[in-house]
Amino acid sequence: MGQSYRKGRSWEDLNRKVCFSLNEELASMTAAGEKDESLQIPREYPFTMHTVGAQTMAVFSQSEADEISLEGMVVHRAECRPVVSDSYMKVKRLQIESAKPQRLAQQLDRAVTTIFKPVANHDFNLEFEKKKKSEGKMVRADRQVVLDMLFSAFEKHQYYSFKDLVDITKQPVTYLKEIMREIGTCNRKGAHKSTWELKPEYRHYQPGEEEEKSP
Question: How far is CA 177 from CA 6, 18, 172, 173, in A?
Answer without folding.
Answer: 81, 76, 9, 6
